[in-house]
Amino acid sequence: VEVDPAKYAPFRMGSADPNLGPLIVFVNPKSGGNQGEHVLEEFKELLSPQQIFNLSEGGPKPGLLAVSDGALNFHPCRVLACGGDGTPGWILSVMDELGFKNEPPVAVLPLGTGNDISRVLGFGPGYKGEPLAAILDDLSNAKVVDFDRWTLQVGGANKRRMNNYFTLGVDTEILLRFHEAREKNPEKFHNRELNKMYYMKYSVEEFIKDTRSKVPEVRTYCKLIANGMEVPIPSDALGLVILNIGSYGGGATMWGAPKGFDAQSFSDGKLEVGYVKGTAHMAEIQSGVSKTVPLVQCTEVELSVSRDIAMQVDGEPWLEKVPEGGPCLVRITHLKTNPVYHIAGRKYR
């Protein structure tokens, strides 16, 4: 890679603006097929190897400690998370665990399949091999904004972080099947477009199940409490969606701008709660002709779940088994805000 020193000087150690600091790059080499490996090597040439960290070698912790002092204060810097939606969340979670007193702003280079955080922050639906110089230009034009993050407590399990969304029910069943197939045969899920084809396959199969009336109504096994008040769940709800951001499942706009509700924002300390009516409804949402049915906006959510059901947070699904004597309690509360880079005016589906 031919490097123009003047072009990359604002991001390099030793020549960056002392108030902004250099760009610290974390790359998940497993993301995006071989894209992660390519990005890792190219950034080493564009910047400096001391600024680039391979997340497969000890995770984010070594890199974060390298740009902080012994008192857990960050030296001025900017962070670029290169990977899927889980990568910026991973970096932010390790910052939480280490207890830093100040935290640098985080930008995203999307290498995953859904890339919902990248979409809402204006960095695009997915990296397609563009010159990394263009990514740095985007970063130069981005502004720092606050990004809400949430604590998710499911039953007696350890608390998790939630950055994007939490769902349960019909659409989550599809995601769980996709996830299990990918874990079993990772070699079949090696690029973004192929992954979408597999996801469509499981969606069609779930649609057939849905039309045969085998999907339980959410209200039969789940009670919704928002800000301490119970919210009735209609009989046609087959899946529940709790949103922090305006992009879901690879670009679907789940909330939109329903009458009687505030505009959605990832900086307002509020969650949007809605529901889907089944796989046909989800297909309409994915195609942009429909939205979730809105239920409530709130600052805290509690669910009481009385049956085993698929759940997911930020694209990571699991089958939650209700303990003997039940129910399983799910609680989502505001954790904090973190600074992130945002390019205003860009919207992606």
Automatic annotation (TrEMBL):
Tell me the PROSITE patterns matching this sequence.
DAGK
InterPro entries noted in UniProt: ATP-NAD_kinase_N, DGK, Diacylglycerol_kin_accessory, Diacylglycerol_kinase_cat_dom, NAD/diacylglycerol_kinase_sf
**One GO CC annotation, please?**
membrane
From the UniProt record, which GO molecular function terms apply? ATP binding; ATP-dependent diacylglycerol kinase activity; zinc ion binding
Chief location bin: membrane
The UniProt record lists the EC number as: 2.7.1.107
Give every DAGKc domain span: 18-156
Catalyzed reactions per annotation: a 1,2-diacyl-sn-glycerol + ATP = a 1,2-diacyl-sn-glycero-3-phosphate + ADP + H(+)
Top-rank lineage group of the source organism: Eukaryota
Q: Has UniProt tagged this entry with the keyword ATP-binding?
A: yes
UniProt keywords (A-Z) are: ATP-binding, Kinase, Membrane, Metal-binding, Nucleotide-binding, Transferase, Zinc, Zinc-finger
Where is this chain's protein located in or outside the cell?
Membrane
User: Which GO biological process entries does UniProt record here?
Assistant: phospholipase C-activating G protein-coupled receptor signaling pathway
Q: Does the keyword Nucleotide-binding apply?
A: yes
Question: What family is it from?
Answer: Belongs to the eukaryotic diacylglycerol kinase family.
Put simply, this protein is called: Diacylglycerol kinase
**Per the UniProt entry, what species is this protein from, by scientific name?**
Eutreptiella gymnastica
